[in-house]
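Ticket #4471: structure output looks truncated?

Reporter: J.K.
Steps to reproduce: submitted the chain below (527 residues) through the standard prediction queue, then opened the result file.
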Amino acid sequence: MNSFLFAFVVLSLIQGITSQCNITSPSLSGLFPLPANVQCGNQLISLAPQNSFEFEMVGPVSSSLVMDIAFVRYKETIYGLDDFPYKPEFPQLTTVQVSIQSKDFNLTLGVDESYQMTIQAPVTKITSNTIWGALRALETFTQLISFETNFTIYDTPLTIQDSPRFPWRGVMIDTSRHYLPVELILHIIDGLAIHKFNVLHWHLVDEVSFPFVVDDLPLLSGKGAWHKNLVYEASDIEQIVTYAYFRGVRVVPEIDMPSHTRSWGKGYPQVMPNCSEATFYNYEPGLDPSDPFTFTVVQGIISQLVSLFPDQYFHRGGDEVFTECYQEDSQLLSWMNQNGMGSNFTLLLQYFEKNLAPIISVTGKSVVCWSDVIYYSNHVDKENTIVTAWRERGDAQTIASLGYKTINSAGWYLDMQIPGQEHYEWIATWEDFYDYDPTQNMTASELALFYGGESCMWGEAVDRINWDQRVWPRGSALAERLWSPANLNDLDYAKNRLVQFRCQTLVRRGFYAEPILPDYCSYEYDF
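Returned output as attached by the reporter:
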């Protein structure tokens, strides 16, 4: 038992328990992200032994496969991970009743994830409009259990009313720089669900490798992947998308173009401009829009993509287009002159965008793009595009002021050691993620176009060995920034909870999350 909880139990038994919910309430000590509204009682209760405890569906929705699987998963999470002697000391909670109002099980941007929960013995009640709100409630409920103190829940009856601040709360993974095995991606999705993130932004391919199998263009992965076995086939993607759905996580894939495409040229060199090797590898070459085959390849990739990923959105990239390689391609330069572009490479990029637009339109999907696109393209469909601000803090407000829907990643890059200010310890960058709120100076009209944000874990120096340590608990800070109310911004309060959350939830559930302070976490040791 940690010293804080031990002291609380002793004082409670001697003096009686406080009836006011405040920042020292033990029920909140390891909760992340913090719910929007919590009212505390003054009673301790114990969870009933496993054979006497159950989740049950009541109300309009009598059955749901998502909830059936979640009940099994959370019961295993609650009872299957500890070796502590279990002796209930307080009134026992035997039943969690879940009442869901809507039979619409679609997982889309803006779906209702709100819930209400009253925790008391013997019956706890959860009410939500959708299954996705119920999933968020189950996670909150599980985090409120103190496993090290005989499965005790403090401050009951606990009444929680909760809903997310923003509808788009994501983490980006990069499977080009280093291939991430399917099992690791499933593990990552489990981590997202713990934090109430609801988007896995999957940066599938990039300049160094192309692990996405496109049936009609087999040389893309055949020659572009690191190894013939290090690819994502349709069955892998189906497994990942389904696994994510059952945890309330949308999978939004990204195919970056026209830049970051050098790996495409390994299988189909005609889609790339011709330039010197030094230029080709020192500057990020873009696709060659002058060759019609380029758009055949683009169409083949997007067609395969939308057939496998059911989400309404996919990310088409669009960042960091350098023109150095174009400038060395005499055939391309001649084509530009013949088509009235002269040496204006912005016109070349607009030509690419003009030809990309109908390929996207025919899919019926909406897109996400990096912010670079809106500055060189005149073919951005504002109604069906979300723009990712990534370069500088404050860019999200600028983009929204131009009338674009936007999400933010600037200041939330997990690969950067100094995303905000310089710290003595690298792990302390979590404070920058937590402290930065891109909406702080937005007008009402700008805020209406702001959908949320993502942490980006670019993969140059990350693979299966160190992914957890790089992301958690630094990414936890962003989870609270995107879920919890804006006025929850006290770093010291967050730090105290993050220490407990890192141990009691992340480490306990098998995540190799880094510590942020000197502490003792019993789940790290097998005594």
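Triage note (M.O.): checked the attachment and the full token line is present. The first strand starts at residue 37 and ends at 39.
Status: closed, working as intended.
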